[in-house]
Write a structure and sequence with these properties.
Distance between the termini: 67 Å
Structural class: alpha+beta
Number of strands: 15
Order of helices and strands: HHHHHEEEEEEEEEEEEEEE
């Protein structure tokens, strides 16, 4: 009786992960005796699937949560030191307003508005526009370490290298070059392996004459470079067009509504699942000083293949180490009944070529 109940519980846990289309195996036609891992380097929304293995012990779960929490708090404190220093050195709001007004008038006299249909040069667009627009119009490189904790299935380590090159108002590059490792109970150590590489194309078609509003179009393409049999890839080409509409409310706050849609272009593996996923983001960026920023961002996901909604609440703190280098930490908590992960913590360095 006890054995049957345990098997039912494991099947239920496995079925829970089967709801999401980003795993490398079908949701319904998988054999119950197969114990498989599927890692999506393109998206942590469905990184891990463990069928046939028991859940982690309560002590192991608590240990993972404590490690994530302490890592995030420690790195956050390191970043808050420059934040306080920035408060002490930052000029008053009146001085900032006067300086920005003078700068805006000078730029307006030298440039024609982007609303007239002309291309926005990088040098002009990088001044006085919302932060996400400056981000899109600046060549950069980024190295990031990320750990994702699942409630019953262990955690995943990811090292992500990304970069882009900007010319005029167009950017091309690699959004993710992932090296990943799965750490789960009862699994042999497979070490780090290459995941699915994501290519990136960005375009800034419009910046308002006032400089407070703009639009950015980005398209990501996930390529099946990860080993599908080992669970390191999804086995499909999946484009994901994205639209960002940043609005600069004032000198210390910018909000960015964004919408994504990922779909399957072509399957390279017979067992690869199709994906149809909508993502809605509301990126709220606060600038407490000239060298520090804080992002509070709710995310909403809807999986059209499995008819499953889920959510995520993300916090991101960054500070400038040098003029061209920024350090940051992130922490995300899974939301909803069918939350995709328990917690996610990351830290990284970003270098701007300017």
């Amino acid at each position: 009786m006890g054995s049957r109940r345990g098997n039912q519980q494991r099947v239920h846990l496995g079925a829970r992960f089967c709801k999401y289309p980003l795993t490398a195996f079908p949701r319904k036609d998988i054999f119950p005796k197969i114990s498989a891992l599927s890692i999506s380097s393109s998206d942590p929304r469905c990184l891990l699937r463990d069928i046939g293995k028991g859940p982690l012990t309560l002590m192991t779960q608590r240990t993972h949560r404590i490690r994530l929490f302490l890592s995030c708090i420690g790195l956050g404190l390191l970043l808050l030191v420059p934040l306080g220093r920035g408060y002490a050195q930052a000029p008053s709001a009146e001085e900032q307003g006067t300086k920005q007004q003078a700068t805006g008038e000078q730029e307006a006299s030298q440039e024609q508005p982007a609303a007239q249909g002309q291309e926005v040069p990088q040098e002009a667009a990088a001044q006085g526009v919302p932060g996400p627009i400056r981000f899109e119009l600046t060549s950069r490189m980024e190295l990031k370490y990320e750990q994702i904790l699942y409630e019953t299935s262990g955690h995943v380590h990811r090292f992500l290298l990304s970069g882009s090159y900007v010319f005029s108002n167009i950017s091309i590059g690699v959004d993710e070059f992932p090296i990943i490792k799965v750490d789960t109970t009862g699994r042999p150590d497979e070490g780090y392996t290459l995941g699915d590489i994501i290519l990136r194309f960005g375009y800034v078609p419009y910046i308002a004459p006032s400089g407070n509003f703009g639009a950015a179009l980005v398209t990501n393409l996930t390529c099946p470079t990860g080993d599908f049999e080992k669970g390191a890839g999804n086995g499909r080409f999946a484009p994901e067009p994205r639209l960002f509409l940043p609005y600069k409310v004032n000198s210390w706050f910018t909000t960015v509504p964004a919408i994504y849609y990922m779909f399957t272009l072509r399957k390279e593996e017979e067992l690869a699942q199709r994906v149809s996923l909508l993502t809605l983001r509301l990126i709220n960026i606060f600038y407490p000083s000239s060298t520090t920023y804080l992002i509070v961002e709710p995310r909403y996901y809807y999986d059209f293949e499995g008819n499953n909604p889920s959510g995520e609440l993300r916090f991101h703190v960054g500070t400038m180490i040098t003029r061209n280098t920024t350090a940051f930490v992130e922490y995300s908590a899974g939301l909803g009944v069918n939350k995709l992960f328990e917690a996610k913590a990351a830290c990284g360095l970003r270098y701007f070529f300017r």
